[in-house]
Structure formats: structure tokens, C-alpha cells
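FIELD: query
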Amino acid sequence: MATRQPPAGPRTRPLWRNRDYNLLWMSRTCTEAGFNASLMAFPLLVLAVTGSPAQAGLVTGVNAAAQLVAGVPAGTLLDRWNRRAVMLGCEVARGAVLMMLVWTVWRDTVEVWHMVATAAVLGLCAALYDPAEEASLPHVVPEGQLATAVSMNHARSNIGQLLGTGVSGVLFGIKHVLPFAANAVAHAFSFVLLLFVRLPRPARDRGGAFERGFWRETAEGLRWVWSHRLIRVTALCAVALNFLFQIVYLVLIMAAQQDGVPSGQIGMMAAMFGVGGILGALAAPRLHGWFGRRLSVLVVFWAMAVLAPLSLTASSGPVLGLFLTGMAFFAPTANTAVSTYQLLATPDRLRGRLSGIIGLVSGVSAALGPMAGGLAMEWMGARWAIVAAAVGTAVTAVIATLSPTLRGFSPPGGGTEPKREDGHADGPDGPDGGPGEGTVSEHVPGATGDGVARAPESSRRAP
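FIELD: result
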């Protein structure tokens, strides 16, 4: 007698058919491309107007400093405010300040303070927009597709970097105003896309959100991140690798220039690094499934520890580019493992603070790395600077491999996977006019905390 099969459950729609995720993905791609276009064009514009490299560095530094200073407070605000409204407001502010800059450049009345003010506003908006978008991801993507979505987001960052830097130089050569005008258009397009994204109202908006005070809530986020041992260790690994990679990358580029490598080949090296990141992001879901979480993190350490000293044998720009491609390839897999775990481990009410804190730590390490690389190259020379960075990476890799904490970073489905439970959704309809599907809160029973390890993309990040 045939056994009756239980009815099949509802099938999860493919990620490429997920309307809200695709709208968020395209919106952030626009902002990434625009950000990189302006970031490259700012020093060129300052040099064209003033001829001062110091002032050119000032404008770029103001943008990074604004993101760092605002990072942690912005995270606390995002855990109070409606994230979709924050993203829309950021796009309005960025578009407005860019159009004002475009107007002054077009009329040939632009001054350094115009560019400094614009860079500061763009940095502040990035400190709000980026963690708001990242914290919204679990609301639009089912848990089973979260790792794939995270890896595609890393591909998006590399695509934005390649598009922005590639187009910026061409546009600036045609007319100085064009990169900034293109950035303003990108933010306008992003604003339109965000209008159609459906996100729920967080339950924290229903009263009592401001009772504890702003700084107490900020301190709560700091305690949360620090008290989760596994997240703390992976975040420290990310900081160390970010710092060491920035040294290797800068020294390789400067050494190639000193050795007389043509500028076109140096540009090819940077492009090959971006391509390595994109290919790695596309392969990350499958590699993450093969390796599991712990090995996904360790492989990027060992890849850099091996490839960095081998790069000393390269005799041309394209060969150096291949080594950079290899270093970039495994970073998205590690980021996928760590970021997915962290998103699932962190309650929704704390995700903004988490992203702000990790963004600050990653930004500091990314800023100090180039400084250390320049000093190391001046004191030791290019070869010994790379060797020192490779030794530092190998030591960190050994520590991570032997770490008892990372041994608990088990493969997917290995028993420590964070469990999701309903409870923080607002109801069927949020303030954004859409259904609150996928609105859940995540936590690790008996544990706290999280930290998003960020890849060294043009980016800013590496696990």
C-alpha cells in the first residue's frame, strides 16, 4: 500500500526574483559607483583649482574622518529611526550637496571649502546609509539565502569600485564637473529605487525607544559586541588582516612605480584586484558551503601569507596583478561566513550599532595600514616591508588556526548556527507601505554580540 507523502511546503523564490532585495542591491550599487567616482575626482579637482597636494589630501581625509567620527553614533540612531526613511533622507542630502558643488564648478567659482563641506556631508551620509542598508538585509532575504545575498553584496562593492573609478577619470578629462554630476544622478536614481522597497516598522518604534538615553544605548551596543567572544575574535582577525593587507597593497603599487612599471600596467594591477573580488564574491556561496565557516576565515589568511612573499618574484605589472587577484579572491568567502553569522546572531534592535562599531574599527585599521606601509617602505625598502607584512599575516594565521574560539565557528548546520525567532516585526504593514515579510529577530541562545568583518575592497574591508 502506497504511503501518502506529506504536502510540500512553500518553495522559496530565487534571490534574483526577490523584488525588495534587488531594489536594495541596485540602489547601493548606484551609491557605491557614485562614491568612488567622486572620491577619485575630488583630489583631481583640488589640484586643478589650487595645485596643492596637501589640500587635495585634506578633502579626501575629511570624507573618511566624517565616516569614522559619525559611525558609532549613527549606528545608535539607526536603531531608533526608520531605516528606509534614513536611506531616503541620505540620498536627498547627497544629491542636494552634489548639485550645489556642480553649480559652483560649472560657474568656475568653486573653492576648497565647497569641496570640504561636500566631502563631509557625503561622509556623514555614508555613515548612516551603509549600516541602514546592511541591517535591513535580513528583513528582505530568507535565512537560507542570506549567505548568497551577503556574497552578492560584496560583488556589488567591487562592481561599484570598478565602475566609479573607471568612469571618473574619463569624465573628469572631458569636463571637471561631470564626475560629480554623474554622482548626483546616481543618488537620484537610488532614491527612486528606494521608494519601492518594502521594509517593516521596527517594533522598537512603538514607545520607550528613547527612555534609556542616547549614550546608554551606545554603551549597550559596545558591550554587546565586546561580550560575544566569537564575534570579538573574528572582528579582531578582520582588523589585523585589513591592516596587513593595506600595507602589502600600497607597497606593491609604490614598488611597481619605483621599478619603472608603466602606469597602464599599474592601473591594470588595481583592476585585476577588483576582478578578483568580483570572481571571489560569485564563488563565495559555493566555497562557503564546501569549506564551512571556520575554514572560510582561515583560508584568506593563509592565501595572503603565501602570495605576499611570492609576489616578490613577479617581474611585470600583470604578474603582480595575478597575485593581487589571488589575495582578493578568498576575502568574500570569509566575509560571507562571518557576516552571515553576525546578521543571524544579532537582534534587529542592535544591528545598527553593530554595523557602526565594526565600521569604525575597520575604518581605523584601513586608515593606519597605508600609513604603516609608507613608513615601512621608507625604513626597510619595498621587499622587506612586504616580507614583514607576510610574516605578520602568517603569525596571525597560526594564531587563528590554533584559536579554541574559532574552533567553535562550525560549518553551516553544525550546531552553533544562530536560531531565528519571530518577535520584532511590526505587523503586516509597516510605515513604508508594504508587507512586513521576513521581519524576524535573531539571537544566539546564551550569547551576545556580533561584528561584521569587512573585506578590503576598495573598499574598506577584509576578514
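FIELD: remark
The longest helix spans residues 263-310.
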